[in-house]
Amino acid sequence: MPQFTDEDLREIYASAPVDEYELITLELIHATFEAPGGGPDSIRIALDDQDWDLPIEDNAPLFGGQTKTFEALALDVTMPAQEEGSLGEMEIAIDNVPQQYMNRLRRAVTVRSPASVICRKYILHHDTDTGDYTLASTDGPVEKIDQLSIKRVRGTTLRLTSTARFVDILNTSVPRRIFTRDGFPGLF
């Protein structure tokens, strides 16, 4: 994947077609999030001023190949840095979190289970004659950052901030199970 500096990105964005629009979305996943009729669910939000029905990629952990609504919320996302020796952390800030999401998040805090986040980027084309937006690709997002685990969450009455980090596979023991003399006497 190419490495772009901030200056490169500013130049790319400045020369982008005026009829293209980048839409950033987040999907928060936790074991306690349940759909109204039962079954697993997630919190899906879009950095925009309107809700969007968007296709989710086929290999997604939830709702693969389906179209789901991403609710418009004011949020700030700082993408993970791509530096040597760093796992990369994504900073997420959500303003004016709706009460239904706050209730789900409060419930999630009481259960010791990992929470993950998926960041997706969709490209929309803007028809300047009609004012309508259409997806550049109906197959799903054009870019996806997944395998991020939420590590820290802080909140105030107006803003919820969190830090998500890539899963550290380099420092994970393999095999996960430690074969000891007491646990597996037949091996020794």
Low-confidence stretches: none
Distance between the termini: 46 Å
Number of strands: 10
Radius of gyration based on Cα positions: 20 Å
Please explain how this structure is put together.
This is DUF1833 family protein. By secondary structure, the chain is mainly β. 11% of the residues lie in helices and 43% in strands. The chain contains 2 helices and 10 strands. Strands 1, 2, 3, 4, 5, 6, 7, 8, 9 and 10 form a 10-stranded mixed sheet that branches. Strand 1 and strand 2 form a beta hairpin. The longest helix has 11 residues, at 99-109. It starts with 5 loop residues before the first helix and ends in a 22-residue tail after the last strand. The mean pLDDT is 85.
Short précis:
The protein has helices spanning 6-14, 99-109; strands spanning 20-34, 40-47, 52-55, 67-73, 75-78, 89-95, 116-126, 133-135, 143-155, 159-166.
Task: Itemize the secondary structure elements and their pairings.
Elements: H1 6-14, E1 20-34, E2 40-47, E3 52-55, E4 67-73, E5 75-78, E6 89-95, H2 99-109, E7 116-126, E8 133-135, E9 143-155, E10 159-166
Feature tags:
188 residues, mainly beta, DUF1833 family protein, 11% helix, 10-stranded mixed β-sheet, DUF1833, 2 helices, 43% strand, globular
